[in-house]
Design brief:
The complex is a heterodimer of chains A (191) and B (225).
Chain A lengths: L1 H61 L4 H19 L6 H9 L4 H22 L2 E14 L3 E13 L7 E14 L2 E9 L1
Antiparallel strand pairs in A: 1-2, 2-3, 3-4
Helix pairs in contact in A: 2-3
Chain B lengths: L1 H46 L3 H69 L6 H10 L3 H21 L2 E14 L3 E13 L9 E12 L2 E9 L2
Antiparallel strand pairs in B: 1-2, 2-3, 3-4
Classes of the chains: A alpha+beta (191), B alpha+beta (225).
Amino acid sequence: MTVDDSITTSDVDARAEAGADSRLRRGARACGAHWRAIVVVGLLVSSVALVTVLYLTQYRIDRQTDTKAVDEVVAAASAGTVAVLSYAPDTLEADLAGARSKMTGDFLTYYGKFTSDVVAPAVQQKGITATAQIVRAGMMDIRPDSAKVLVFLNQETSSKERPDPSLTASSVVVSMTKVDGTWLISAFDPV
Amino acid sequence: MLSTTERVGTDADLLAEKAEAEAAEAESAAAAARERASRLRQQAGAAAADPAPDRPRRFRVGLSRPRWTTVAAAVALLCTAALLTVGGYLTWDHRKTVDDERMRAEYTAAARQVAVSLMSIDHNNADADVQRIIDNSTGEFRDEFAQASEDFVRLAKDAKVTTEATATAAAVESMTDDAAVVLVAVSSTVTNTEGAKDAPRNWRLSVDLRRDGDQIKMAKVEFVP
């Protein structure tokens, strides 16, 4: 009975040992496989992180100052300048409202006051018609939310007193600010 | 000697017999133990949700797992390669944006400088002023200016005027890596020999720039009407 017992135990032990050994080998093999998996997943995760960081911190911001954005700002500044400097007595209200819609900030406040106090009465009384034309325009500096555009423009003005149009050539630094995705004039400085 | 050997032999025989008997006994015990063990296993198997079918299942998983992981690893590595390509593109794109910004500043500064040097002539120093313009020019413009430089110097000396120019604003109209068109607003004041100054005049210049070695030079200048 004792012999029987001891043999049974050692037999079971041996089988258990063999089982543990193969399980260990299987574990080691699984661990090796896991190491490869860890490296592969690690590479994938870090490349996802890299692309995400590059996209968020660089690419998305760069798009706001790229060639397309530059063209957009220059076009907005040109159109805004034409709107600010073109008016006629018959269409004055609409002209001024159109110009105001292309402005923002202090310049909008100033322009509103200046046009209602000075420009509007003069235009109505003297029958002044002004037409601005952009000759050339270039980008001075651009940031995601602000830009400066140099505009070379010619303004043709005529009045009841002087019906022959006179041409004025001028250069203006137009400061632009992006408000809700739209570029608006925030300062207008003749140079 | 012999008897001793015989006795030893007899002793050995006896020992062998005894060992055989013991072996037989052990064999029967082993058989009983094996039977018992298998009985115990059956019991254990019945108790612990039958591990026997588990074994072949694990074996099957072990066979199909490498194929699954290989596919997953290949997909993951392809994704990683694609992402790294995208990352490379994003880095290149960002560098291009930074370069463009630097280039815009560079062209603007160069255009300001050449416009000012072109429009600032001191009659006392006309030769050097003109030489500086030639040094800052390239291509046809340089050739034409060099040809007309003598007349230019004589004119400046005869008129006895000094022109002082400042660039009030400059902006890039278009640019590539090695050429640009820059608009420059210039204000110039003319002083005659008596020291009387004219009111400053404003000019609008369009300057074509081109890279010449490590320097940016003007290739064409025109007044914008």
